[in-house]
Amino acid sequence: MPFVVSCLKVPNYPAWKRRYDSPEATALRHKLGLTKQQILRNPDDPNDVVLLIEVEDLRQAHHALQSDELRTFVARGPILQRTVYYQNAEARPRPAGDYLPY
Questions:
Q1: What percentage of the chain carries pLDDT values higher than 90?
Q2: What is the pTM of this model?
Q3: What is the dihedral of CA 85, 54, 1, 88, to 10 degrees?
């Protein structure tokens, strides 16, 4: 399965998590086909959040994550910074010293 990784910087994790778990956000993720995800946090800074999202179709996920509906929802916060990476299902693990140019 391909994955989408979304790296977020939020001002207040508990406030962000309440919004993330809200019925509106849950319905939007379901509508966009973003239903299998894990939330990871930086132990040194709990406001650094990583969403690991498993998707069936990478093109559909890219389209969903660029949708006006999601942009409007995200713009209402609370997110300070958002970066999204797409990982192809055919991608192979890389050696530790082989960095990707993001």
A1: 22
A2: 0.72
A3: -10
